[in-house]
Design goal:
Layout: E1 3-8, H1 14-21, E2 29-32, H2 41-53, E3 59-62, H3 68-72, E4 79-82, H4 84-94, H5 106-118, E5 123-128, H6 139-158, E6 161-166, E7 169-173
Parallel strand pairs: 1-5, 1-6, 2-3, 2-4, 4-5
Antiparallel strand pairs: 6-7
């Protein structure tokens, strides 16, 4: 069993890399966290394109609330969660936390970490790395950046492997204790 966190920027290739990590498994559950929005045809088209490009033998679960992810992360089927940025956006929406103090979503992140920690099969989590750019102009942008950064740091501690994908190239990240002496 391996828990892997795949980080990267927009269109960096992180989803493709994450999918390649489970390519040899005969059964994979793909958990899509981006919620459909009938008022946004472009977004729904992106979701449909992602779905069409996955292997046919993979099953897809589209979560519709942040808490649904905790239920999906039960069982023993190799699972890919793509991505935690859209999951966090949904949590901020569901909890009415966009104007709340920072840390309001911490209990949801605690529940996510507990679900990841107890998961019994290969698990690949895709998450945006947003801390490398400019400071967002809006409070909502800064809140999202701060919350996803904190969540990524906590997830990295419970995952056996962490990879950063930049320009389609994957770079394994190591902890100080992972380095050879």
């Amino acid at each position: 069993m391996t828990r892997t966190l795949v980080l990267g920027g927009a269109r960096s290739g992180k989803s493709g890399h994450a999918e390649s990590l489970l390519a040899d498994h005969p059964e994979v559950r793909y958990v899509a966290t981006g919620r459909r929005n009938s008022a946004d045809a472009d977004w729904d088209a992106r979701i449909d394109t992602h779905r069409r490009t996955r292997p046919k033998h993979w099953s897809t679960v589209e979560v519709t609330s942040y808490a649904e992810l905790f239920e999906v992360l039960r069982g023993d089927v190799p699972t890919l969660v793509d991505d935690l940025g859209t999951w966090l956006t949904g949590a901020l929406d569901d909890l009415g936390a966009w104007d709340a103090p920072r840390g309001t979503v911490a209990p949801a992140v605690d529940d996510l970490l507990a679900a990841v920690h107890r998961f019994d099969a290969p698990l690949v989590l895709v998450s945006p790395e947003v801390g490398l750019g400019v400071i967002p102009e809006s409070r909502a942008g800064r809140l999202f950046r701060d919350e996803i950064g904190a969540a990524n740091a906590r997830l990295a501690r419970v995952c056996e492997a962490v990879t950063l994908v930049v320009a389609g190239l994957s770079v394994p990240l190591t902890r100080p204790t992972d380095r050879p002496s």
